[in-house]
Protein 1
Amino acid sequence: MKTKIENQRVNLNKVISVMIVVFLFLSTGVVAQDEEPIQALFKKGTVVNELWTPEVKINSIQGNIGTLVGFYGGALINRTFLIGIAGGVNLGHPRVNYGYFGGIMQYVFNPSDVVHFSGQLLIAYGSTKDYEDPKEGLLDNFWNISGAPFFMMEPGLNLEVNMSHRVTLVVGMSYRYVSGLDEYNENVLITRVTNEDLSGLNFNIGLKFVKKQKK
């Protein structure tokens, strides 16, 4: 008849044997998984560039022509698809002071051609506020735009000219759709600017600067 200690040793040996079998099974599964190809969103050889574009936009608000200075940039994939951020602040409109910040997507057609086209969509949050004092210079109340909020969506089409491998001239036009602006907000008691006032055609010019390629 086996003693209690002998029974414990037998049980321990069984546990160890089961653990070894389980370990070998898991190891075989890991090896099999390593042999399977890993699927990814971007294929091997995908080139991602960092791109930044300062730009100037010209538009008409409440019958006055104004200019807005802005930028957009982000990750340019295979020199074709851009996804990134964008922003802008009023520079030269005499009555309405406003700005925005949001995201942008852009697709470039035949980027290797000297002259080519691109299409884009800008979606952003904006804000407008009346001037505290009459605007006398370009930089008067430049950043004083935190006031009545609005939402904007702006599709556009551009003509692009490659000046060099890393610099591209961009000229184009877009149409801005604005919603959610309250014309009775206390921050716009003077201009009473509306969604329709801020909506409309924009003409833009800018320079794309592409940084060194990264794989």
Protein 2
Amino acid sequence: MPSFGDPRAEVLIIGLAPAALGGNRTGRMFTGDSSGDWLIKASYELKFANRQTSDHRDDGLVLSNVYITSVIRCAPPDNTPLRSEIENCSKYLLKELRVLKSVRIVLTLGLIAFNTYRRVCQLEPAVFRHGKTYSINKNNTLVASYHPSRQNTNTGRLTWNMWISIFRTVRMLLMSGSN
């Protein structure tokens, strides 16, 4: 499944994988499922998207200053990717990172995205903590968030206030011009 968004984006969002009932069905990641609903609504509220919903690939959604990708390019069985799947798909993430020259802020959704990003970029290990920002270098910042999966949102592990706060942090980092 291909990534999508603004190729000149300063914000890169990395999720886990296209959802079986979302991306696999609609042809675009974070589209047509509850995780996508949360992502697109927050993007809209912080002016990264032109609409607050996305239910199919040709619905008119346009992202501004945001590019969305994932660690895995297909829906893993039981939503649990094998290490070999992560390794096989990491080359695509690494190629995207090389092409996306304007990225200053990387928002990782979940522990697997966080660890995979740090590994492919050969960054020092760090402890994942929702809402924490990590300086990558003088120009780049990593922001960690829980994934907006139903498992996290239905249990209250990730609330809407926690989620929108992540996007406000990203917007603030962009506006400040310094990370």
Protein 3
Amino acid sequence: MAWYDGLRILYQVPGSFQHLYHGVVWRGNIRKRCVYLTFDDGPVPEVTPQLLDLLREEGVHATFFMVGQKAFEYPELKQRVLDEGHVIGNHTYNHLKGTLYPVGTYMENVAKADKVLDGTRLFRPPYGRLGWREKLRLRRLGYKIILWDVLTHDYDKNYSAERIIDVVKRYTRNGSIINFHDSIKSGERMLVAVREVIHWLKQEGYSIDVLSDM
């Protein structure tokens, strides 16, 4: 038995729960053989440029959920992401965990990031944590809340690149939104894993698309 058997919930939230948790997007287009690569917590100069080089070499576009403060500190990286055909989303200004802050404070932080991130309507809550009040406010403001269908755990130092690749191969399906991080903590193993994941996805006949706020 593989190490991940019986631990599915760590990598892919069950469809029954996804269905019950209304108002967020877990998967993209399930009617075509496509997936969506997403990267959280950047941009950072130690990792994001290497990732962009890799994606350009492979002819692939992705969706970057940026922390507003980092996009403010490294505007040239944010602009390069856009110039190279990728899509950006809001990941709050200070990477706030939604359940730990008053709704007003959380929404102010989202709005602050919005000013740096060119008004994107894509939003991903840090840690995947979002109370129902925040969710309601975000939806009323027109945000499309994106979670994920495959969590790679690339931020966990106990996960090797090979283990991350195994997770993706095990749980990817039509429409999967795959969660990676272009952060210093994840960088080295993420970069190795992403290249191999892209090769595998292409071999399996998946197209790799970007998310839309429409």
Protein 4
Amino acid sequence: MAQRTKNVVTPERFAQGLTYEQWLEAIDRNQERFRENYERTDLSEEDAQAFRELVARPDGPARCLALAEAWCPDAFRGLPVVARIAEAAGMELRIFFRDQNKDIMAEFLNQGEFESIPTFVFYTRDHRYIAQWAERPAIANEQMGELRKIFEGRPREEAMADYISFQNGPIWANWREETVREIRELLAQHCR
């Protein structure tokens, strides 16, 4: 398990984060997008069981801290996925607004440099750092060109209907599935 020199997130601070339901009540936009992605996230019984087994380990991921903002498409796709994982596994999920918690974000920068969201930080039951995951699965980065094509040479307003269709389509759904797979692999690797 990785050792951390910084630790701005104490157990007390972690407890101040919002639950997923509190998050949905607190955000000022995209509640429907968050709900849609939550409803469309299918966690297989095999995945659910694997996450439950990981959480049950003495050094397992009993807690997850999330940093997000409601305007971010990666957040309204990824945060519901982790909410489903946490729910299925019995993991405590607490969510923080990135822009109101820059000290937390500074501790968990993506590649030590980027304030990527969502960022998910996993802790043991006694609040020891395990690992973190940020932004989107690798396949989404590889397929980002498909998304960019929607907006190329078109006014934003005109492209938005196609963008919404993309978010309801198979590529976006696969990104949710890949998020589950990558997080499962990450935690299995760090919780031995």
